[in-house]
What does this fold into?
Amino acid sequence: MSVKAKKHLGQHFLNDENIAEKIADTLTLKGYNKVLEIGPGMGVLTKYLLQKNTTTFVIEIDIESVDYLKANYLNLASRIIEKNVLRYDFTEIFGDEPFAITGNFPYNISTQIVFKTLEFRHQIPEFTGMFQKEVAERICHKEGSKAYGILSVLVQAFYDAEYLFTVPPQVFNPPPKVDSGVLRLIRKENISLPCDEKLFFRVVKMAFQQRRKTMRNSLKTLNLSDNLREDVIFGQRPEQLSVAQFIELTTKIEADLKAG
It folds into this structure.
């Protein structure tokens, strides 16, 4: 595949065997026996996944990569999904069975892959993979950090997030201009929120869209009661609130909206 084609796909292909093996080893293999690799390219990571005691599926939209995988990984051919992962319904292949996700994710859709994982979190007990380092850090950081934001809160509401290691540009073709970071998400035992889920997502997004403002200002369009708006939590900025505090805040807002 040409470098131009790879750049068009937003993907930088890993060509370091040691890193590929390390990424494959980030999977704990607990709570599932099927794995979906997103964006396998020429199969450098796939090779190590196929050595695991799991059934590996791959989803790839690039025709050249699919042809290469079919020619070089004959035992994988029937488990290659030639679809756009963002438009694909995972239940078509997995039904209601649990499965893990891993991969060297294309930078330009990596956050969308995370949001899709959240949609299917009841089936995805584990998620590992490689992102642009800045994105991986954003997902894993805690409150009080400048990197802490929408992704951090929404992911950590349902998963325990761990930043594992950094990968330099020179192990890719073409080399990206930034470092990459590998993370692991392990689903929490209790992923049911004590508040309305859609409202929780809305509150978090509204808050961080104006992250320099206090919660009182960033959430003012919700038309909350003056009494609730005087709560001490509304005097803080979003990066100061933990995931638990965002859940608590949403619970209060939900009650206030129902009462109003």
